[in-house]
C-alpha cells in the first residue's frame, strides 16, 4: 500500500510540474457547443456545463495543490529551524521556555484541532 501511495504522489507531482505540457486544453478554455460531453477521445474525462475540459482542470488543480503543499512545508520548515536555532543559540531561560511551549504543543492530540464542536 505504501508503494502504491508513493506511486500516486509521484504521478500527481509529475503532473503538477509538467501541467502546461500535459493539459490538452487550457484549464479555462470554454467550448459552449460541447457542453456536458461524456468521456471520449477528445475529452478524456468529459466536459462541464460550460464546455471546459475536466482533465485539464484536474491537472491544473493538481499543480496548484502541489505548489501550496510544497510552499506550506517549506514555510513550516524555515520557521521551525529559526525557532530551534534561536532557542539553541540563546540557551538558558529562552531555551527552557521554548522547550516547555513545544512540550505543551506536542501533548495536545492532533484530532482536537479538527473537531467540529
Strand and helix layout:
Blueprint: H1 2-17, H2 19-22, H3 54-90, H4 92-107
Helix pairs in contact: 1-3, 3-4
What's the gist of this structure?
The protein contains four helices and no strands. The chain is mainly α and 117 residues long.
What does this structure look like?
It is a single chain. By secondary structure, the protein is mainly α. The chain has one domain (2-90). It has 4 helices and no strands. Helix 1 (2-17) packs across helix 3 and helix 3 packs antiparallel against helix 4 (92-107). The protein is elongated. The model has no long low-confidence stretch (mean pLDDT 90).
Descriptive tags:
62% helix, mainly alpha, 117 residues, elongated
Biggest sheet architecture: none
| Rg of Cα set | 22 Å
In N-to-C order, the SSE pattern is HHHH
Task: Report mean pLDDT, rounded to a whole number.
Answer: 90
Task: Provide a count of the helices.
Answer: 4
Q: How much helical structure, as a percent, in the residues?
A: 55-70%
Please give the number of β-strands.
0
Uncertain runs with pLDDT below 50, 5 residues or more?
Answer: none
Q: State the distance separating the first and last CA atoms.
A: 33 Å
Secondary-structure-derived class: mainly alpha
Strand content: under 5%
Instruction: Label the overall shape.
Output: elongated
Number of domains: 1
Amino acid at each position: 500500500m505504501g508503494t502504491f501511495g508513493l506511486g500516486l504522489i509521484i504521478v500527481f507531482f509529475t503532473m503538477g510540474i509538467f501541467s502546461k505540457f500535459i493539459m490538452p486544453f487550457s484549464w479555462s478554455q470554454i467550448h459552449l457547443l460541447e457542453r456536458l460531453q461524456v468521456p471520449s477521445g477528445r475529452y478524456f474525462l468529459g466536459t462541464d456545463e460550460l464546455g471546459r475540459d475536466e482533465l485539464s482542470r484536474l491537472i491544473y488543480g493538481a499543480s496548484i495543490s502541489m505548489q501550496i503543499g510544497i510552499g506550506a512545508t517549506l514555510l513550516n520548515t524555515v520557521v521551525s529551524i529559526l525557532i530551534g536555532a534561536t532557542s539553541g543559540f540563546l540557551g538558558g531561560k529562552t531555551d527552557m521556555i521554548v522547550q516547555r511551549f513545544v512540550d505543551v504543543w506536542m501533548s495536545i492530540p492532533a484530532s482536537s484541532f479538527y473537531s467540529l464542536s
